[in-house]
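Hi U.,

Before I forget, here's the chain from the pilot set. I'm dumping it here mostly so it's searchable later in email.
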Amino acid sequence: MLTEDQQIFEQIEKAKNILIVFGKNYSGDSISSALAFNIFLKKINKKVDVVADGFEAPRHFLFLPNINEIKNSISTEKKFIISLDTSSVSAKEISYQLKNNHLEFIITPKESQFKPEDVTSYITGHAYDLIIAVASADLESLGNIYQQDTQFFFNVPIINIDRHPHNEEFGQINRIKITAVSTTEIIFELLKNYKEHSGQDVIGEQIATCLLAGIFSESKSFKVGSLTPNSLVIASELIKLGADRETIVRNLYQNRDLNTLKLWGRVLAKLKSDLDGKLIWSCLNKIDFEKTESNADGLEDVIEELIVNVPEAEVIILFINGHDDKTEIKLFSIRNIDALSLLEDFNPDGSKNAAVAIMNKQLTETEEQIIKHIKNKLEKLPL
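Structure:
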């Protein structure tokens, strides 16, 4: 009986055109995982595309190899197929003509006649014959890539690689390891096994750098409590394989512009908490962005700092009001609390770890309503 990894390698070897996908609320781990797999597949001469809904490369991940190859939508053309049932009547001759803006197909039977019910039509899926989903809890987290063509995802085999315990195991093959600190850890172990499977050593400097970047990003530079000895061993092995640790650290943790740091200061200065620190939040208005000459792009990083430095926090919320009549709610959750469920009454978008909602209300009113709502939800959760 084939092991899980052997099944993955068998599917990859059979495939000719592979699609790598990750969630639209992407993280450093998902980006790094996708790029590492992209380089691996190209090394073994596979045709591959990497796609994430609405993807825009984060500034501090631009150092990763081939990040410019990640697309923000699937653009493969589909084909319209007209099918004729020839089980009872054979076709003798086929031709076509353009008449009055209609394309007519002329099929001459060998005997008897064709009937209208012998003709059917359908649209083919994309050209991909294998999907590899990385760091994605469910298909819905892929956003429009999934929602605009759900049939495609049901017709094509999926390899699902993730570390999150709430993963819905939507693949035909599910490589889930909830004790891993990052998805790149799982991919490292998989690619090591590929050497045993094929005799080919595929982990070079570029793949090693991507994999280590995922570990650094997800472990907050080895500061999170979930870090395991195995993570440290893998990180050490990746550095031996050529991972550029200095470049990773410089870009992820030493490359903040002054205006972003000023905005972080405003977030921290306005920080509030409740439920013994389980719920913390902060509010930003138009003046905060104007005074710091910054935008909301770097705010996920300050959330990471709060996760590391406020270990009792289970839900972190940012209220952002750039306009007087509209407030954005960014909610981040840990300890397996479902962010989307917490905001389900407000039509949220996102994933189980990070959800976003918009309210057509001013900042103070939104803050009051949402905090009351979230407190009520958290108090009902089992201890």
